[in-house]
Amino acid sequence: MAKETFEFQAETKQLLDLMVHSIYTNHEIFLRELISNASDAIDKLHYESLTNHELLEGDTAFEIHLSTDEAAHTLTISDNGIGMDRDDIINDLGTIAKSGTKAFLEKMKEAQQSGDKSTDKDLIGQFGVGFYSAFMVSDQVTVVTRKAGEKQAYKWQSAGDGQYSLEECDKPKHGTTIILQLGADFYGSDKDENYTDKDALASLVKKYSDYIRYPVTMEFTIKEKPKDADGKPIEDAKEEEHVETRTLNSMQPLWTRNKSDIKPEEYKEFFQHQFFEWDDPMEIFHTRVEGSVDYTALLFIPAHAPFNLYYSDYEPGVQLYSRHVFIMDKCKDLLPDYLRFVKGLVDSPDLSLNISRELLQQSRELKLIGRNLEKNILKTLSRTLEKDREKYETFWAEYGKSIKIGVYSGMMTGENNVDKLKDLLLFMSSNDGKLCTLKEYTSRMKEGQKKIYYATGKDKEAIEALPQMEMLRDRGIEVLFMTDPVDEFCVEGVHAYEDHQFHSISRGDLDLEDSEFKEEKKKNEDLAKSNEDLLKDMKEFLGEKVADVRLSNRLKSGAVCLVADAAGPSIAMEQAFAAANNPMFKARRILEINPQHQLFAKLQAVHDAGKDAPSFKDYCTMLYDQALLLEGILPDDPAAFAQKVAEMMAK
Ligand code: ADP
Ligand code: MG
Q1: What ligand 1 atom has the least distance to the C-alpha of 276?
Q2: N or C: which end of the chain has fewer CB within 10 A?
Q3: β partners of residue 180
């Protein structure tokens, strides 16, 4: 087949452009990227060969080999990994799929738009920018590759100018060879960066790729005097040249080393590179356990939650290794879903390489390791909460939602997370606008207070403005503010803390314990009797909209409010469901009227004029609409509402 020419996908072009015209000083990371791709390719072949040994074609000595040609100004990186077929090449080398690279592009654009040049060179070192980084140092990149198990090899070539060519070729060994035609600044002993200098290359491998699990080898030509039988150089002999193949990396994975020997930068570098992260991790867990199951785990909590953490396209999970050999990426059955933000890996000789992923995911060993790690993480979190509140609140801001979802989703999946998680929960308090734990709330509850009061609303200001808040504020009763739709589901899940039940100030009865409240309540009950007709007629007129109309015990200066029946979802929950396009869950709305308010007397007068009179109907509608507005819900007919208000104002 003849040579074909292709255009790179638009985003790839942008990235290439950045690489070719880069002003970055950290060019050297290209080597790390190409070596790590080679290592990934060997991992893949190794994994596939477990079930299909033929793929190895008899070549079991995995290796990444570097070679240089000073005269031709080339640097070549070869591996005997999985290789690529034609489709792989077009998909993998012609487009950008990896999220890290995409995120990199976005950050670059941001930095450029803000005119902040200083971040440019940092950025490139922080991201795994992948294969295209080769163009930082090359005028031309040639990839010769053959997929293991297939006959046809291909040659891909590009000068990084928006196009690449592809043609068939021969390659006896499976795997990939990448030949970099180095740019003029990157070869020759007079250059600061000379990528044909073997010693320089060796130290780069040591610096960035030491823990790569396969040998990275290079041939060195050694000139030395021949040795005698004892291995001592013979003094007056002439120097002889010979070629020696050296392995440049120690191949010891970071996680297998002693914690005390690992520098913070090494953890950071590893985290960023292995998991395509660009910030420092917020928390690092490095544990080695020997017991009924042996394992080493290196887990991280990233500094920031990914934007899609709660969307279905987010793939949680940690990497699995067995005896340092990669088994799988993103195993999501290890940790519970509420820890979906944890990244990292587990390496255990007890995880079998030779079983299917499905069986592996159900294995007893995996479950045991998972439970231990979950305990560890929770212990660390509660210690942080105790010892370093500020840090915990930072954690909470990023991942609190995940923990809250964990509490209530556990109810549905049957795993009860409440006891594990309830003391990790934080809610904003009406006391000081700060976050508090449930323990803190209950420890400062008022004498005789039995319930934990909470209010829902879109933010602190909206909740504080709720007419129901006034009475509680007057009595100095602390209220927890639930501003995230998941909050209320979460407390439903917790149900009670230290025997104190949660109680929404907008649901059911307020149920305060003091005698003043009880007296008021009694008075209202009597009033309700004498106004039975009024309440009944209002309810009848409002029809489907409300489940009931009552006199309120929770209002002070407010005229009306809308609450939900204690049985069934709250209004906030209903709204959350509606926002998620699930209008099935409906709150049973109760309109409450404040008999102390002067409007009440007016309402009685209007009602006396007849329940079918237009003015009574207007009052009903408007009171209901007002109550909706207080909950942040638009009236059913906003235009009619505005019109009525205008009319009344004109009176
Ligand atoms: P990433 O490694 O994060 O996926 P890269 O830009 O580094 O992104 O590489 C893009 C893709 O090209 C890889 O995912 C892989 O499919 C393919 N690739 C790159 N180098 C090799 C190689 N040496 N052997 C096989 N495939 C490779
Ligand atoms: Mg890569």
Answers
A1: 3
A2: C
A3: 75, 141
Q: Are residues 52 and 80 in the same domain?
A: yes
Q: 511-528, pLDDT tens digit by residue?
A: 787 888 888 889 989 999
Range of the domain at 113: 4-247
Asked if 285 and 185 sit in the same domain, the reply is no
Residues 17 and 39 in one domain: yes
- Tell the residue nearest (CA) to atom 23 of ligand 1: 38
Is ligand 1 within 6 A of the CB of residue 92?
A: yes
If one counts every other C-beta atom within 10 angstroms of the C-beta of residue 246, the result is 13
Mutate to test the pocket of ligand 1, among 40, 86, 156 (most ligand atoms within 8 A of CB): 40
Partners of 298 in beta bridges: 286, 345
307 part of a folded domain? yes
Q: What is the DSSP letter of 635?
A: -
Same domain, 40 and 60: yes
> Which residues neighbour 585 within 8 Å (Cβ) at sequence distance 6 or greater?
569, 573, 574, 577
169 and 233 both lie in a single domain: yes
Amino acid present at 9 = Q
CATH number, domain containing residue 615: 1.20.120.790
Burial annotation 134-170 (CB, 10 A radius, 16+ → b, else e): bbbbbebbbbbbbbbbeeebbbbbbbbeeebebeeee
pTM, two decimal places:
0.70
- Which of 92, 127, 278, 326 for a ligand 1 pocket mutation test, highest count of atoms within 8 Å of Cβ? 92
Which strands sit side by side in the sheet containing 548-551, from one edge to the other? 548-551, 589-593, 560-564
CA of 40 to the centre of ligand 2 (A): 8
pLDDT, tens digit, 9 for 90 and up, residues 457-507: 888 998 999 888 988 998 899 999 999 988 988 998 999 999 999 999 988
Q: In the chain, what is the straight-line distance between the N-terminal and C-terminal CA atoms, in Å?
A: 88
Tell me the per-residue pLDDT of 181-218, one tens digit each, with 9 for 90 and over.
999 999 999 999 999 999 999 999 988 888 788 999 99
Token pair of 392, please? 């915990």
- Among 247, 268, 301, identify where a domain stops: 247
